[in-house]
Design a protein that fits this description.
about 350 residues; mainly alpha; two-stranded antiparallel ribbon
Length: about 350
Amino acid sequence: MSANPFLGVLLHAIGGLAAASFYIPYKRVKGWAWENYWLAGGIFSWVVAPIALALLIVPATPEVLMAAPARALGFTFLFGVLWGVGGLTFGLSMRYLGIALGYAIALGLCAAFGTLIPPLVSGELISTARETSGQIMLGGVGLCLLGIAFSGVAGISKERELPEDQKTEAISEFSFAKGLTVAIFSGIMSASMAYAFQAGKPISEAALAAGAPELWQNLPVLIIAFLGGLTTNAVWCLILMVRNGTMGDYTRAVVDGERVPLLANYVLCALAGVTWYLQFFFYSMGTTQMGRYDFSSWTIHMAAIITFSTLWGIALREWRGTSRRTHAWIAIGLAVLILSTVVIGYGNYLAAKA
């Protein structure tokens, strides 16, 4: 199957929409602490959905994983563990900053590290920069980072303009200093998922050899990477449950005198978890369509997430009460992000055509 970068961009956009939307159901969970609903949703994100869809689409997945090199499995799992640290703190960044600003800061750093480090380590970045198609693609990466910066400026402007009571009305635990620290750390560590895909290429090759469709060759890779992410998140959430005494909340119908809708909570967590997984389901397909510069997939993914998360922030009235100047920064950031995906797609198209 030949590369189709514009199809790849579309698939990344769908994945970005899923990533930007997954946290919405969590906002309706009642009576559970953060660690409870994060882990409950994570079981569907990191275990149920990846295994079920991989077995459904690539029935030979167990044989693929057994045939894959131990080194590839080990490094994919390790990067999954590191990415899990980023994903864990990513949830906290939205908790303290809100969807729009939390996504902008964390994913800005994530985009830079996740896109540029793999080709830099492999030596591919220098050769890419010497070609016209590569220069256009890298220019698109630069535009993406610029768009993320504009989005960050909009978030900072919002933080300065809103009174404390209005900030906490939209984001009950708003804390710019705490959220900024967490978002920076999260962004750097979250880039490890891009490294997991690079480390898992031998697994993808084993899937192709077993007859897996090229579009879904990365589904077995996701299983290993997400097991690493599950390890990190489960350990931390269990520590918090023991510390906060929330371990039993999963079965308590009443907490602090208030009725807890247990069935609704589980359904909402399952919905959030599966939606979260869909981002990488579509990402894994999109990256197979990007051709020689498949590492640029990470930038497109981040741009799509920030674009849709900003729109969600507007829909949820996180920007209510801010000035026209702040709204202008939002619009500029969105426009540059959308433009960056078009430029990256065009650069990949030229490379595929050549």
